[in-house]
Write a structure and sequence with these properties.
The chain has about 400 residues and is α+β, with helices and mostly antiparallel strands. It has helices at about 10-30, 45-55, 65-75, 85-100, 105-130, 135-215, 220-245, 250-255, 265-275, 295-315, 355-365; strands at about 280-290, 320-330, 330-340, 370-375, 380-390. Helix content is about 60%, strand content about 10%.
């Protein structure tokens, strides 16, 4: 048996003080529970009374030890004139052993006290052979089994309340995790939209402004400034549209026009105009395929993939053709953007790699696949090919 060295709880000190004070008052008043016992000395009843009061200090820190020693004190009390305070404090020790004890003790004590109650009832009934012996069994049950059952009920209620609190904490934690994930996903979506809308225009501005500064030719500078102005205006319009989307409510934002494949020829035309001075020729090859409308997320993703691929071609591709190809079937929309892979003369805009990350995120959300890298094409050398396959069934992707 282990006795804790922790100081007793203030409530335990109060219970011990009240129990001891009440027992002393009963002893001074000459009120006892029995008479004619083995120990006739009047003061003998104070020994188990004091011991039981001292054990009340251990009812939380060492409940099982307190119950075992309290049982011995109660047995000793039966050989004296007895005290009602000792009996009441023993019932509290039984209750505390169930409530504050180990789970195993909480299961064993009610069973043990029930068996003790039944055994004492049958034993005294066989000894005295009168109905009065049943009263001894009733008293034994009230002193032992009653507090044990009460402790079981209180412990079950406390465990249920603790389980409910833990479930509430877990629910709150999961809700917070969902909120953080939703905020993170929304930030990622906004970052992709901002990058895809503005990077193309800013790349063209960077390249042509560098050309205007490095080439001392009025005609070249005039053309470069025209491209710069056009891309500045288009980029500003895209930024205003994005800001408008962020400011509108959910109902209003659904009405905002998002880029679709129908406007892909306009995008390719703008890229061709901006890339003319760098030796790039941009063409669109719509392979056709099965007709029919596509889900809005698929059209937006395809448009952004083409837009980002054209931006990367404007930054890094060597002079030559840049081809945009679309292929449609019942299950997939295929997007390919190829450009010449190699070194090129003239100014180049720096890249951050965020565009490829954004494309992969878009395709992953739709449940598709994407590859980007150099591929060989015989004597013509290599090209940089971006190929994405997007499922067109709405049940496949995660909106």
């Amino acid at each position: 048996m282990f006795i804790s060295t922790r100081p007793p709880h203030r409530h335990d000190v109060l219970i011990a003080a009240v129990g001891l004070s009440g027992g002393l008052l009963l002893w001074l008043a000459g009120l006892h529970t029995q008479g004619g016992r083995l120990v006739e000395a009047h003061w003998a009843a104070l020994v188990p009374l004091t011991a039981t009061a001292a054990l009340e200090l251990l009812r939380r820190s060492a409940p099982q030890t307190a119950l075992v020693l309290g049982t011995l004190a109660l047995i000793a009390d039966q050989f004296t004139s007895g005290s009602l305070a000792t009996v009441l404090m023993f019932t509290d020790l039984v209750y505390a052993a169930v409530v504050y004890g180990t789970p195993a003790a909480a299961r064993r004590i009610p069973v043990t006290t029930l068996l003790v109650t039944a055994a004492s009832t049958l034993g005294f009934l066989a000894w005295f052979r009168t109905a009065d012996a049943l009263l001894i069994g009733v008293v034994t049950g009230l002193v032992s089994f009653g507090p044990a059952i009460t402790g079981v009920s209180v412990r079950n209620h406390r465990e249920a309340a603790e389980a409910a609190r833990l479930r509430a904490d877990q629910t709150a934690l999961l809700a917070e995790m969902d909120r953080v994930q939703a905020v993170t996903a929304e930030r990622s979506r906004m970052a992709r939209e901002l990058h895809d809308m503005v990077a193309n225009h800013l790349s063209a501005i960077a390249i042509h402004s560098t050309a205007a500064l490095s080439i001392d030719d009025p005609a070249t500078s005039r053309d470069a400034l025209g491209v710069i102005r056009r891309n500045s205006v288009d980029g500003l319009a895209e930024m205003r549209r994005l800001i408008g989307l962020l400011r509108r409510s959910g109902a209003d934002s659904s009405q905002s026009a998002a880029p679709t494949l129908a406007s892909l020829d306009v995008l390719v035309g703008q890229a061709a105009a901006g890339a003319a001075s760098t030796g790039l020729t941009v063409t669109l090859d719509d392979g056709g395929g099965e007709a029919g409308s596509l889900p809005a997320p698929v059209e937006l993703a395809a448009y952004r993939i083409v837009q980002e691929s054209l931006t990367n071609a404007l930054k890094h591709a060597a002079p030559g053709p840049v081809t945009v190809r679309l292929g449609r079937s019942r299950e997939l929309l295929t997007v390919e953007v190829g450009s010449v892979f190699g070194d090129r003369p003239g100014p180049r805009a720096p890249g951050s790699g965020a565009g490829l990350v954004g494309m992969r995120e878009r395709v992953a959300l739709l449940g598709g696949t994407i590859t980007a890298g150099p591929v060989a094409r015989g004597e013509d050398g290599g090209i940089w090919l971006v190929r994405a396959e997007l499922p067109v069934e709405e049940g496949v992707y995660r909106p």
